[in-house]
Amino acid sequence: MSEIGCPIRTDLAVETQESLKKANSDMRGVKYSEKKLENGIVVSVVTIDSENAVKATGRPKGRYVTIEAGQINEEDEECLARAAKELSRVLREFVKSVCDKKIYHAIVVGLGNRNVTPDALGPRTVDNLFITRHIVKEYGRYAFGNENVNSVCGLVPGVMAQTGMECLEIIKGVVKETKPDFVVTIDALAARSTKRLGCTIQLTDTGIVPGSGVGNHREGINRENLGVPVISIGIPTVIDAVTIVSDAVNASRDNTKKMLSPKLNGMFVTPKDIDEKVKKLSGLISEGINMAFSNDEYGDE
After folding, report:
1. For residue 17, what is the enclosing H or E element?
2. Beta partners for 188?
3. Which helix (H) or strand (E) holds 106?
4. What's the pTM?
């Protein structure tokens, strides 16, 4: 709960862990570790491995890795490159944990609405991916002069208002037809802290419930529903307006609480330069995925 009485939404497991710790809540089954890299990037891992932890966090069992690179917001191109490289390294770890094949077939799904900038991260990421499945299928890997090329295809299912279908229904059909070894989803997230907007990358092996961070719950895109492993990648692009007010006003002012809570509940805020941020961040994620799927040694350095 926020200090002004409204629930604060976040898609980031690290923020949920922080809230539990601050409230001195029961954290049995929630493991946390953090590592600060020499390049200024902070990598934290939250592992949820018990039913108690599932109830406490409201998140499924699994591993949640957060890459924080605050310099991304400072238009630091070197930081973008470092973050992409770290993303590729972590993604390779996730792929190895869900797929024992050296050469694999993956589907990358860009979730969200391309026409709404804060929600366009997924579709724009897919636009920049190195797609190979059609070439491998038509000409074989000889077309690349490399037998180690993975088969990668992209999917942008849109949103229900555009298609009349749940994203899960569309993805299920594609998975059934193409039979991938695993699925990677890309989606814009909601954050609890303004400092994490546009500079925090979360990867998890639990899949994703599209729209959960902003209260628009849809069917979960996960292993249980698709029948194949699902790795989810996301970056927060919006924050609950209640959070901003909660951080700014004195919670003891009951009149303020009564006045603001109904008006702000359900309203979300995004940075004014979100167009440029989404362009850079979608490029960052696509570069990280392309490196991770390239089967060279770059991402393991």
Report:
1. helix 13-22
2. 235
3. strand 105-110
4. 0.87
* Identity of residue 252: S
Query: Which one, of 35, 38, 33, lies nearest residue 79 by Cα?
Result: 38
Residue 223 to residues 161, 173, 220, 229: CA-CA distances in angstroms? 25, 14, 9, 5
Q: Which tokens is 287 given?
A: 């570069």
- Partners of 154 in the beta sheet? 108
d(CA 218, CA 191) in angstroms, rounded, equals 19
Beta strand pairing status for 151-155 and 62-68? unpaired
- The Cα–Cα gap between 286 and 300 comes to 17
In angstroms, rounded to a whole number, what is the distance separating the alpha carbons of residues 233 and 108? 10
- The C-alpha atoms of residue 158 and residue 192 are separated, in whole angstroms, by 26
Each residue's pLDDT expressed in tens, for the chain with a length of 301 residues: 444 445 557 899 999 999 888 888 778 889 999 999 988 899 999 999 999 899 888 899 999 999 998 777 666 788 889 999 999 999 999 999 999 999 999 999 999 999 999 999 999 999 999 999 999 988 888 888 888 899 999 999 999 889 999 999 999 999 999 999 999 999 999 998 888 999 999 999 999 987 554 455 567 999 999 999 999 999 999 987 766 666 655 444 555 555 555 555 666 788 888 999 999 999 999 999 999 999 765 444 4
CA distance 212 to 185: 14
Q: Which of 94, 59, 121 is nearest to 181 (CA)?
A: 94
- What gap in Å lies between CA 208 and CA 82, rounded to an integer? 26
Phi-psi region of 61 (alpha: psi -120 to 50; beta: other; left: phi over 0): beta
Name the β-bridge partners of 34.
Answer: 44
Q: Locate tokens 């009951």: which residue?
A: 254
Q: Which residues pair with 68 in a beta bridge?
A: 42, 200
